Amino acid sequence: MVRSAARMIRERGVTGVGLRQIAADADGPRGSLQRYFPGGKTQVLLEAIDLAVDDFAVGTRAAAVEAETLPDAVRMIVSSWREVLVDSDFSVGCPIASFVVDVSSVDPLRERADERFTHWRKGIAAIYRRFGYDRTAAWDEAILVISSLEGAALVARAARDIEAIDAVEKLLMDRLTSSA
């Protein structure tokens, strides 16, 4: 049920997903939601966001261990976003964005979104530090990467076109080249 909720959040946003829909999508009895998730929809969503973000962060995890250069790392991160968008025919977006847009007034959900953004930022900053950036510069570059990709993914989904992701990749690469 958590996996169904995670997928549905990425496709429909938080407000587009109900407990009955989750149970039906997971082919599970609706009563099991109350049994396994006594905290209701909030509990399901809190568990689902962690799963959805883990699925979405494949490129960042790969870049952290496999990249031989910082440009390779950035390409891997951007490529994973491009792949998710294209493979889903632009129907899937960042699950954290859904939390922020749909339920930022619900503190436990907003706080979880903030925690996940911070975790992701730390991961990207660690990649930049690995390639010689100091702590402050790495932290700043990480938020630039995240903000750029989040915005580009939104534009790409609206246009059903990968141009925004490609432009972000080019600009990030140009930035690395000019700072070298």
TrEMBL record:
UniProt entry tagged with the keyword Transcription: yes
Keyword Zinc-finger: no
Annotated keywords: DNA-binding, Transcription, Transcription regulation
Domain Transcriptional regulator LmrA/YxaF-like C-terminal: 72-170
Domain HTH tetR-type: 4-47
Record PANTHER family: HTH-TYPE TRANSCRIPTIONAL REGULATOR LMRA (PTHR47506:SF3), TRANSCRIPTIONAL REGULATORY PROTEIN (PTHR47506)
UniProt-recorded name of the protein: Transcriptional regulator, TetR family
Protein species of origin: Williamsia maris
